[in-house]
Every structure is written in structure tokens, then in C-alpha cells.
Design a protein that fits this description.
By secondary structure, the protein is of the alpha+beta class. Helix content is 27%, strand content 24%.
């Protein structure tokens, strides 16, 4: 997983509950916001119902942002 690529303390990870309403009320889906503290990059993912998958997606976005900015 790309989240393991980052040193401990470089990422600030926040989870937030889904918006209420609709057929998925009370579901366990959870969005994730990750901030890479050294660079200030922020990625948000709430596309999946799994917090673990959303965390991986957001970490991939941070990693992609860092590698593209180094070019």
C-alpha cells in the first residue's frame, strides 16, 4: 500500500461520516481526508464504502501529487 510509503508523522488522516439521507442512512461508509504535512498537499476520497479503501485512494493521490511535482 502506498500509505506505508510515508514516514510516521508526515500524514494527518481524518475520517468523517457520510452525509445523512437517502437509502444509505446508517451505513458504515466513511470519507477520508489526508494531508501531507511537509508539502501541504491534501487529498479527499469518499468514493468507496470502505474507509480502508478510501484511505488507500487518498494516499495514492498524495503520492501521485508528490511525484508529479518533483518532475
Amino acid at each position: 500500500q502506498s500509505i506505508d510509503y510515508f514516514p510516521i508523522g508526515d500524514l494527518k488522516i481524518e475520517a468523517y461520516p457520510p452525509r445523512t439521507g437517502g437509502q444509505q442512512v446508517g451505513s458504515t461508509s466513511c470519507g477520508v481526508r489526508i494531508e501531507h504535512l511537509p508539502s501541504g498537499l491534501i487529498a479527499i476520497s469518499n468514493t468507496e464504502r470502505s474507509q480502508i479503501k478510501n484511505r488507500a485512494i487518498a494516499a495514492d493521490m498524495i503520492l501521485a501529487g508528490l511525484t508529479s511535482s518533483k518532475r
